[in-house]
Amino acid sequence: MHPMFHRLLLLVPLLWLGACATVPDGRPAMPADDLTLALQAGDCRAAFDRMDTGAGTAADRRLRVAQLCIQTGDFTRARRASAAFLANAPGHPDEDYGAYLHALAGFGEWARATGADPEVRIREGRAVAQEIVNHLRERPLSPYGDDLAPRLVRLREGIAGAEFALAEGARQRGDRSLARARAEYVLQYYPRTQAAADAARLLMEMGDP
């Protein structure tokens, strides 16, 4: 288990004690800071807004916020928190984990935006795919590689689907030449995808040029 998980798990029993807990010698414990309370409540937005204050180092606070936001599905804030961690804590023991969270959040943002303009979806999908490829290449011993690698398959399928959507859109506008070129592009660069099968069908329906 990753050291960060160990630290977080150790915190769990303490969270139930609340702000008015008593330390072993009978003195009241210090009330939890706002960031800790937001993390306890699972409130990504509040935790992100309080990320620069509270107990612990700035790097650890940012990493904890990024992890919470990933867990709650707020990929935009998770990506921003992990980006802040990576930018300001080079060489940190959890740098690999931070890079993993950043890539995972980017994938989450992209996967959720299924209704985005095809060109935007292609551009952003390629950027996330390149980030994951770089992670796998530069961190071959990363324990998170096995979790990131399968997402490349989904990215490829999604990008291919967006490429086909452009081909279909060109056909609907009556631009057969562009539709054919885009469909052939899908067949050449995205074989063995659903989009490639759709592109082959489109070409067959359009017939000879």
Describe the structure.
This protein has about 210 residues and is mostly helical. Helix content is about 70%, strand content about 0%. α6 packs parallel to α8 (about 145-170) and α8 (about 145-170) runs antiparallel to α9. The protein is elongated, with a radius of gyration of 23 Å. Residues about 1-25 and about 25-30 have low confidence and may be disordered.
How large is the radius of gyration?
A: 23 Å
Strand content: under 5%
Give the total of beta strands.
Answer: 0
**Overall form:** elongated
Major sheet details:
none
Helix content: over 70%
What is the mean predicted local confidence, pLDDT?
Answer: 86
**Element-level helix/strand string:** HHHHHHHHHH
Low-confidence stretches: 1-25, 27-31
Structural class: mainly alpha
Total helices: the number is 10
Q: Quaternary state, please?
A: single chain
Separation of the first and last Cα atoms:
58 Å
What features would you highlight for this structure?
mainly alpha; elongated; disordered N terminus
Summarize the structure.
The chain is mainly α.
Give the SSE map.
Blueprint: H1 3-15, H2 34-41, H3 44-49, H4 58-71, H5 75-88, H6 95-112, H7 118-138, H8 145-172, H9 176-189, H10 194-206
